[in-house]
Write a structure and sequence with these properties.
Radius of gyration: 16 Å
Distance between the termini: 25 Å
Strand order of the largest sheet: 1-2-3-4
Structural class: mainly beta
Oligomer: single chain
Number of strands: 15
Order of helices and strands: EEEEEEEEEEEEEEE
Strand content: over 45%
Shape: globular
Number of helices: 0
C-alpha cells in the first residue's frame, strides 16, 4: 500500500501496485473493488492520492503521470498535460488553491494549474529530485522532505528555498504530518 485516503462516504482508497483499491465494510462484510487499467486508470501502480474536493481525488502514478478519480461516478479523467507523461514516477502530490504540486523521483518538481490546464517545471536546484512528501501549513508555506536535503520549507507560490535555523539533521524523511 503506497497511499491511503478516506473518502466523503467513508470508503478507504488504497493506492497499490494493482491500482486504486476501494475498501469498505457494509453489513459486517469487507468489500474491496479495484480500479485498474481495465477501467481507465493509466497505470497499475498508484503512488499518491490527494483530495481534490467534491469526492474527486488526484492520483499519482509510477509511470503514467497523474489523473483525477471521480469516486461518485467511479470515473477516471486524464488531463491533457498528463496524457504523454515523460517525467517518470510521481512520489508525492499536493493540491491547494487550484494548483496540483507534483514531485517526481528523478525529473524534478512540477505544478499543474487546474484553471489553465498547464504543467510547468518548478526550479529547485539540486534539491529538485526524490522529494518524497509535500505538505502546506496554515501560513501557506509548502514543506518538502528529501532524503538528500532533509526538510525544506518554501513560502508557497514562490518556491524559494529557505534554510531551517540551526542546521537540523534529518535522515530518511519519508512523510510529513500537519496537526491542525
Amino acid at each position: 500500500v503506497n497511499a491511503l485516503i478516506l473518502t466523503d462516504n467513508g470508503d478507504i482508497l488504497a493506492g497499490t501496485d494493482q491500482g486504486i483499491n476501494i475498501c469498505n465494510i457494509k453489513n459486517g462484510k469487507k468489500n474491496i473493488s479495484v480500479i485498474g487499467p481495465n477501467l481507465g486508470l493509466p497505470d497499475y501502480i498508484v503512488t499518491s492520492i490527494v483530495d481534490a474536493g467534491n469526492n474527486l481525488y488526484w492520483i499519482g502514478l509510477q509511470d503514467k503521470g497523474f489523473c483525477l478519480y471521480d469516486h461518485t461516478n467511479k470515473n477516471i479523467i486524464i488531463p491533457a498535460a498528463a496524457s504523454n507523461w515523460k517525467y517518470g514516477q510521481i512520489n508525492s502530490l499536493l493540491y491547494t488553491q487550484n494548483i496540483l504540486w507534483i514531485c517526481t523521483q528523478e525529473n524534478g518538481f512540477f505544478k499543474y494549474s487546474i484553471q489553465n490546464k498547464k504543467l510547468d517545471s518548478v526550479p529547485l536546484g539540486e534539491a529538485r529530485n526524490n522529494i518524497s512528501s509535500l505538505l502546506q501549513d496554515k501560513q501557506g508555506n509548502i514543506w518538502l522532505s528529501s532524503p538528500g536535503y532533509g526538510l525544506i520549507r518554501t513560502p508557497g507560490e514562490t518556491l524559494k528555498l529557505i534554510a531551517i535555523p540551526g542546521n537540523p539533521v534529518f535522515e530518511h524523511v519519508h512523510a510529513i504530518l500537519s496537526v491542525r
